[in-house]
Amino acid sequence: MSNPSKTTEVQSFEPRIVAFLCKWCSSAGSDLAGVSRIQYSANATPITIPCSGSVSPMYILSAFNKGADGVLISGCHPGDCHYMEGNYLARRKLYLVKELLQFIGLESERFRMSWVSAAEGAKFAEVVDEFVEDLRVLGPQNRLKAKP
Amino acid sequence: MVNVEEIRDYAASLLEKEEVKAVLGFRRGSASAFAEPCTITEVGEAASLVWDPTCLNNLALYLVKDRKQQAVAKTPDNRPVGIVAKGCDSRAVGVLLQENFFKREDVVVIGVSCEGTGVVDSNKLSDKLKGKTASRITFSGADDINVSVYGDETETVIPAQEILADRCLECRAATPTLHDVVFGDTVEARDFNEPFHAAKEAESASEDERWATWEHHFDRCLRCFACRAVCPMCYCHECVVDSTTFVVTLGTSAEEKANRIRWCERSANTSESAVYHLTRAIHLAGRCIDCGECERVCPVNIPLRLLNTKLEKEAFEMFEYQAGHDIEQASLLSSFRDEDPNSFIR
Question: Which ipTM was obtained for this model?
Answer without folding.
Answer: 0.91
